[in-house]
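Problem 12. The chain below contains 298 residues. Write out its predicted structure in token notation.
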Amino acid sequence: MLRSPLPRPRTRNWILPIAGGLFVGVASLYLFLPDVSKSAPTLSRDPISARHFTPVTVVSNEDSGPSTKILRVKVSPHLIPKDGEDPIGFGPIWSVYIKDDDIQVERPYTPLESIDEDGNMVFWIKKYPKGEVGRWLHSKRSGDMIELRGPLKTLPWKNGEWDDVVLISGGTGITPFYQLVRQVFEHPTVESENTRFTLIHGSRTPEELPPEQILSPLIAYAEKHPERFKLKLFVDVDDGSKPPVDVPTLEEGRVGDEHMKRIMGIPESGWWQRWFGSKNKQSTISSKTLFLVCGPEP
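Solution.
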């Protein structure tokens, strides 16, 4: 297996693996973290930064499905860095760390959209049985204060660098991909118009699919730009529960090799081709194809 030539900086347990071409190899791209930790100071008057925590206000915290909530927070507008003031910036894909003040543990979360001019950020948060910060965030109410630090660059995205981008996500792992796709289609550039995206997402059951706030825009992008964006939704088990919104198609089963070959248009090969090769063998995948994976280990 090929290894990434990138140096490995300090990391947390959240990883975004990537592969540069289906048959080229696999690498892992980690969060680009500054040399700070949960011991970073809390500053309430300085612009938000990855080097310190900033108190922000919870605007709302609404149920969005089994064990998930849509969390809205507000940063004071005067604490938002202006263009050129922050070396990271708010281009996709970026995240922030949120700290549980009770036990002094921090975890990274990706805003669904960028931060607006009023300082609002929106997150899709899942509560795991052993997830300290997720459980803590689910308990927050409107008016409560929490601390975050960021932005932190998760992936140094550059428009026009790839012909095809294949995004494979599970559960709340869709959040960085939603941020990227939304940025590309809501703020198109000449460079981004030639890049095609395929988003393949899996959830355990239909009712556990991403909420309407995520799915509706993605479905709209797929309908408006069918030549540039494909959306494929999977569930482990179709238990008869209802998805958050009407979805065009929903496939049952975990995403595997056969699904990927079909979605990517790779023809099946017989045993004779696998053993003896094919004189007319030609890859249907561009050499400038980026694969990004985000979600639980399975």
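Discussion. The chain has five helices and 13 strands. Students who got a different answer should revisit the alignment rule from Section 12.3.
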